[in-house]
Design goal:
The structure is a single chain. The chain is α+β, with helices and mostly antiparallel strands. Helices cover 32% and strands 36% of the residues. Among the domains are: 98 residues, Sandwich (Jelly Rolls); 83 residues, Sandwich (Immunoglobulin-like), CATH 2.60.40.1120; 144 residues, Immunoglobulin-like (Sandwich), CATH 2.60.40. The chain is built from 2 helices and 26 strands. The strands form 6 sheets. Strands 17, 18, 19, 22, 23, 24, 25 and 26 form an 8-stranded mixed sheet that branches. The chain has a 5-stranded mixed sheet with strand order 1-3-8-5-6, with no helix packed on it. A 4-stranded antiparallel sheet has the order 2-9-4-7, with no helix packed on it.
Length: 546
């Protein structure tokens, strides 16, 4: 019974195969996939094709790695239905999970030996499909550092970037930022690194960063400028009332509130809230500088008096009522603690603090007293105390000007009489000009007649020129025809000469032939006559025969 069933199955199988062959129906045959007991070996940069033929099935692969290697495991789909998920296991008995991923994953191997990869479909119920799996060496990371000012976001050139091993603290790479604040440092392996950045005028910074990708990896470093942290007490006061064109002074007092370190002032800049014509230009702010330098000892107070002259244009006193544009800036430098970091190989990171002179930025350090409002300006225009006396002087000048204008009026009357006389003379001249104009008008008529005649003659001359042109053209045509006729006559003459010569030659030849023929005829006639004579003689004297 078993034999019959087996034979019947073989016949059915053979019939199905023959039917598929005859009807050209494709038959898919899946290759045997690796199991955990017998995984398929994979070599570097040599992809292997795999298939999930049944939902929930797993394919296993194996490869060898050396300690320190960094491999990238990648899977690409060969069919749209494939959604892979793979897991990397250590090759020992425990088979612990090292890393997993869907498309790719990178792992730094810490032990030398064999490793396993399991590949399956994310849908264990229905998922099937084909894929390619490969392994390759990971591209080493390249650290790209951008050093920026944390306050202004401007790039910091010439900043030194050092990269260290975070365990042994040995230096792995170093470079300087360019004009754009960028620098590039290539590294050998992926992982954690200690980075320190140092720039002139800024506090050092450091940090531990993880570089787990391949190729260029960007990192931004915001650096803080080393600045003075102390403060001052200052005030700026305008003495008296500021009048147009008047000379005045500003009193600036500065007290160094630092009980330990001095402050060195380079100059004091005063900004006035004027908007007027000054030194040949329209100016919104008038800047006055007083060169120093002056050193203020700890706790010392100094008062400075700055002389100035106000603009003479009164439009300076109809500007904005806001006085916030009036201020005094204390420009200079002061000592500050700069933080630096030193990495000692095999030991660690050491912080150092150094006292260095740093510039003072009054707008940024206004809260520390280095920019102070200028007091003594009214929010409305201020009247000049000497304005009344000035107005009296102006009134007197106006009266003097009125008297001068009366004298000018009398002189203008005299000039009027002279103008009337001049007017009558001009009328006579105008009458003479009218006569001349009429004469010129008649002359114009005659000139028009002459011009018309000249125009008619010009038309006739044009007609004659046209006719002459036609005659010239005809003569040219006749000359061309005469030239052609002469050429033809020359040809005819040559032909006639040749014909005459040929005729003379023919006549000569004919004469010679006739002469020869005549001689021949004479000879023939002579011969004939001789023959006749002989015949006659013979007939008269018959020959006797013996």
């Amino acid at each position: 019974m078993v034999r019959v069933t087996t034979g019947r199955s073989l016949k059915i199988t053979a019939l199905i195969v023959c039917s598929l062959f005859l009807f050209q129906i494709p038959l898919t045959v899946y290759a045997q996939q690796g199991s955990k007991a017998e995984p398929i070996p994979i070599k570097l940069n040599k992809p292997v094709t795999g298939t999930i033929a049944e939902p929930g099935e797993s394919n296993w692969y194996t490869f060898n790695a050396t300690k320190g290697d960094s491999y990238v495991i990648e899977i690409s789909n060969e069919s749209v239905s494939m959604a892979p998920f793979f897991t990397l296991y250590s090759g020992n008995e425990s088979g612990s999970i090292l890393v997993w991923g869907g498309r790719s994953a990178t792992y730094n191997f810490t032990l030398t030996g064999a490793y396993l990869i399991e590949v399956k479909h994310t849908d264990s119920t229905y998922g099937v499909g084909r894929y390619d799996i490969s392994i390759r060496l990971a591209e080493p990371p390249t650290l790209v550092v951008a050093a920026l000012d944390s306050n202004t976001s401007q790039p910091i050139p010439n900043a030194k970037v050092n990269v260290y091993n975070p365990v042994s603290y040995n230096l792995l790479g170093s470079n300087i930022t360019d004009s754009n604040g960028l620098t590039v440092i290539p590294l050998k392996y992926r992982g954690y690194y200690l980075v320190t950045i140092s720039a002139e005028g800024y506090d050092d910074i450091y940090g531990v960063t993880l570089l787990e990708g391949e190729g260029r990896i960007n990192r931004f470093a915001g650096m803080t400028a080393t600045s003075y942290t102390g403060f001052v007490f200052a005030s700026a006061l305008v003495k008296g009332v500021v009048s147009p064109g008047g000379t005045n002074s500003i009193s600036v007092s500065v007290a160094n509130a630092n009980a330990t370190y001095p402050i060195r002032l380079h100059n004091i800049t005063i900004a006035m809230p004027w908007f007027g014509f000054y030194d040949g230009n329209i100016q919104g702010l008038l800047i006055l500088n007083r060169s120093m330098p002056v050193t203020l000892a700890p706790g010392e107070i100094q008062v400075f008096s700055i002389q100035f002259t106000a603009p003479t244009d009164v439009t300076a006193y109809i500007s904005s009522s806001l006085t916030t544009n009036a201020f005094a800036d204390l420009n200079g430098e002061a000592p500050a603690w700069r933080t630096t970091y030193q990495v000692i190989e095999g030991v660690g990171l050491k912080e150092n603090r150094t006292l260095v002179p740093v510039p003072i930025n009054p707008p940024a350090q206004a809260s520390q007293g280095f920019r102070v409002q200028l007091e003594g300006f009214s929010p409305v225009p201020v009247a000049d105390p000497a304005l009344t006396s000035k107005l009296d002087d102006v009134t007197k000048s106006v009266k003097d000007s009125a008297n001068k204008l009366s004298d000018i009026g009398v002189r203008i009357g005299d000039m009027g009489d002279q103008l009337a006389s001049t007017s009558s003379s001009m009328k006579r001249v105008a009458s003479g000009l009218n006569n001349v104009s009429s004469t010129l008008s008649s002359s114009d008529g005659k000139l028009n007649t002459i011009s018309s005649g000249v125009g008619s003659m010009s038309d006739q001359l044009k007609t004659v020129n046209t006719q002459l042109g036609n005659v010239t053209s005809a003569v040219s045509s006749l000359a061309s025809q005469q030239k052609d006729t002469n050429s033809k006559l020359t040809d005819i003459t040559q032909k006639m000469t040749t014909l005459q010569k040929n005729s003379e030659d023919s006549v000569n030849r004919l004469s010679s032939d006739l002469r020869t023929l005549l001689i021949l005829l004479v000879v023939i006639a002579a011969v004939t006559a001789a023959a006749s004579v002989l015949a006659l003689i013979r007939s008269r004297h018959p020959r006797t025969t013996y």
